[in-house]
UniProtKB/TrEMBL annotation:
The keyword Zinc-finger does not apply. Belongs to the V-ATPase 116 kDa subunit family. The keyword Manganese does not apply. It is found in: Membrane. This is V-type proton ATPase subunit a. Pfam families: V_ATPase_I. Residues 101-130 form a coiled coil. The chain crosses the membrane at residues 424-447, 468-486, 549-567, 587-604, 638-656, 757-778. It comes from Hibiscus sabdariffa (roselle). It is a multi-pass membrane protein.
Amino acid sequence: MERIEKFIDNLPSMDLMRSEKMTLVQLIIPVESAHRAISYLGELGLLQFRDLNSDKSPFQRTFVNQVKRCGEMSRKLRFFKDQISKAGLLSSVHPVVEPDLELEELEIQLAEHEHELIEMNANSEKLRQTYNELLEFKLVLQKACGFLLPSSNLAGIEERELSENVFSNDDYVETSSLLEQEMRPADQSGLRFMSGIICKSKALRFERMLFRATRGNMLFNQAPADEEIMDPLTGEMVEKTVFVVHFSGEQARTKILKICEAFGAKCYPVPDDISKQRQITREVSSHLSDLETTLDTGIRHRNKALTSIGYHLTQWMSMVRREKAVYDTLNMLNFDVTKKCLVGEGWCPIFAKAQMQEALQRATFDSNSQVGIIFHVMDAVESPPTYFRTNHFTNAYQEIVDAYGVARYQEANPAVYTVITFPFLFAVMFGDWGHGICLLLGALVLIARESRLSTQKLGSFMEMLFGGRYVLLLMSLFSIYCGLIYNEFFSVPFHIFGGSAYKCRDATCSDAQTAGLIKFRDPYPFGVDPSWRGSRSELPFLNSLKMKMSILLGVTQMNLGITLSYFNARFFRSSLDIRYQFVPQMIFLNSLFGYLSLLIIIKWCTGSQADLYHVMIYMFLSPTDDLGDNELFWGQRALQIVLLLLALVAVPWMLFPKPFILKKLHSERFQGRTYGLLGTSEFDLDLEPDSARQHHEEFNFSEVFVHQMIHSIEFVLGAVSNTASYLRLWALSLAHSELSTVFYEKVLLLAWGYDSFIIRLIGLAVFAFATAFILLMMETLSAFLHALRLHWVEFQNKFYHGDGYKFKPFSFALITDEDD
């Protein structure tokens, strides 16, 4: 035993098996070098600061004004980004680097650019509004004249002059809103009209309102405008409708004006005389031409200014984000007014201590500080954060484990084994090497475009798929492997590894599915013999194979989980957990389900016809009875009795000793007795004289006993339910195989039985759709979730606590756009 322990202790440590060793450090930083020191630590990204001002609100902290300034600059930069996006321009992919730009200089530049842009936007909005009004007036003149032309040729045309200041004044551009002007200054009792323009979507409701308001005493004409007009608020093109309303009386005119104002319709005066209409149209067209030139010039000038901002926008946004992050971190430090220094605390990996000290020395030198930064290690009271160094390949598997719960500090990491077991269990349920090749192609595309996709902003689904590209790669490779074992290519078997070991009884093979086949050579060398497909005993054979295989895989993985609990207990020097949890759990699980796995292997090797259901049931009901034909080996009955007794003994072994030993240790400790050190995970911190747990809460025996009883009952019942849960491997594998068979035989082969090309094409399309969306998407998701369940519940609950917290260092590399 001692040799085994020495061998285990001498094994090289695995980087991913245990989290990095962490240490609590304290920094005492002079004020003049604080900003630079925090910036250098942010570039290093290996120190998680503790908030020493958690009792203060954000407005009571030292650097609140600097944070506000950075927030205001972030707002201006977002404004610039929105303006560039609205203008249809792109920020420079390779931004111009401005060396040594100070935050104050950037603040002044941003204020100047913002003022310039706001002024240009205001001028452009005024010009656009005037242009829209003139364009609307032009459209009204074009359409309304068609309605008024017949009446103008009637009885002697009486001159009706429009207001001279409207058309002869050079300042028409500024006074072209003509809503309140009288349409026809004629006698108050004759027939009059009002012309204008309204949004097309409001025209029908507008007409109904006019009809009700005038009680039908009006004539409404409308025609769609030839051009769409830009809405200055939204920037979208809006369809308009020109209208002319004929009415009589001043009261009706007042009502119509109010309705026009309520519906947002604009009214424009149209003269009766054709010559005046043409003259006004020419004047309006001239003004429009001038305004178009002015607007184009303004847009070019604005785009030029936005382009120059776009060259530096990426660098400015990065700089402001970094500065804000630095000041947010400085606000977590304690400011000592008397000594003019900042005191900070944080967690860092032990391997990073030398790098941090070098960065702090560099900060002291670069800031020309007369006093150096003090860096020293502190004694920690609380548990350190958990930090695993991962790469592109292992990160996705670590995220799968962390989604269940972050590992306790220095706890055994399930991700080490999840790298292999997760895609393998997925493949057991998904096994088809045709479908596996499809998944492999998708994974290879994502990996080949990794450098480009990693810099793009992806959708939620695509981002999840890209993050799990290496999980998808191993899932596809294992699916191909399991598909070759099942001998399924889109549910079709192939003679890849040689000929079948079976043949028909006669040349016609007419009774192959009824009487079965006969064996005439050695077994098929790899995987399932292709002759099983379509035979009389195909389903019973595959069901038996996959069900027994599921039990073997489940018992193996659960044993792995219990074994890892031993390594956890050994690492934390908890002999109680080894003696009264690991040992009885191993005995109980393997006395029942380990024995069942042994029977399965013996039955496979010997070809026995023993009924394993009968063996396991009567092992409990009548263990002393003769097994008869179900006996697989000599001494089986005696072995079953011994295993049953061991399983019964293991239950109280798990339940009773540990709570009473903990109670004895507690009573001896507080009575001042000396005793041999028996390290336990529950009392490790109490053994340290400077521990914060020196004043431990009163030992509650009933609470400890109930907790141990729940844990024992959960394991006993879980051993049965978890083993049964692994049968989902058999169920989903069977479902996937049968679905593939149905789509192949009832869709593709059925369509191929017709001579019509169209029917074959439709059958092929339906088969491709079913394969892509049902078998490759829904079945992949289903198998993924079931594999996730098996790891989170059946595997990890044997050893994994998952109640730690993740190491979140202050790092510029982790700052994202959302942090603005």
